[in-house]
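Renewal narrative, Specific Aim 1. Our central claim is that a sequence can be written position by position from structural information alone. The example that follows is taken directly from our test logs and has not been curated for this report. It begins with the structure tokens describing the chain, in the order in which they were read.
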């Protein structure tokens, strides 16, 4: 009797965007969108450039009838939103933890931008001590995590992941930074702060 070779077992695993926790639940850590794994993911201030993240394969638009092209583009560009409940005093720590989790999941350091609405992140303070020219040169290089304050939010460029630490009072500047951060985020927007204050600013648009 002829032997039938065994067919290889194919284990399918899907890694997609995680669902944002429902309102009222506490989410101590974000669920970042996973990226390609890399062996080295240096943090800001540590030697060594971040690994280059391969560009996703080009996708041909599928012809559809009755749907405007502009609407399809808008749907594709909408970033995933994740809210991490945190007080004003702990928002910066929550943002740092989100950065660590994203790097551990395989995100390239250059994919991540961190904005603070109150005091500057210690990394930004340190780098600005060498002058604004050197500081913004690192931003333009785009090969490492970059930290910026609310006053510089208009100057930063878009990145796949934007993290906002609401570590200051909810003033006009903060109210301006949150919608701007949503525009700058290509794939994921993570906001660390008081849920009621954040939802009051971002509203149902997230």
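The sequence written for that structure reads:
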């Amino acid at each position: 009797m002829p032997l039938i070779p065994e067919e290889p077992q194919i284990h399918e695993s899907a890694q997609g965007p995680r669902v944002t926790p429902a309102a009222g639940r506490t989410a101590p850590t974000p669920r970042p969108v996973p990226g390609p794994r890399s062996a080295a993911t240096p943090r800001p201030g540590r030697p060594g450039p971040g690994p280059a993240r391969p560009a996703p394969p080009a996708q041909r638009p599928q012809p559809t009838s009755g749907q405007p092209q502009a609407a399809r583009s808008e749907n594709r560009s909408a970033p995933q939103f994740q809210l991490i409940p945190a007080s004003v005093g702990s928002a910066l720590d929550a943002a740092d933890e989100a950065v660590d989790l994203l790097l551990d999941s395989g995100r390239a350091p250059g994919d991540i931008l961190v904005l603070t609405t109150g005091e500057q992140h210690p990394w930004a303070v340190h780098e600005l001590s060498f002058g604004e020219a050197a500081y913004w040169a690192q931003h333009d290089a785009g090969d490492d995590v970059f930290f910026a304050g609310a006053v510089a939010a208009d100057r930063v460029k878009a990145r796949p992941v934007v993290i906002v630490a609401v570590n200051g009072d909810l003033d006009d500047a903060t109210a301006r930074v949150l919608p701007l951060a949503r525009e700058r985020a290509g794939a994921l927007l993570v906001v660390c702060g008081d849920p009621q204050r954040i939802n009051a600013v971002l509203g149902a648009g997230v």
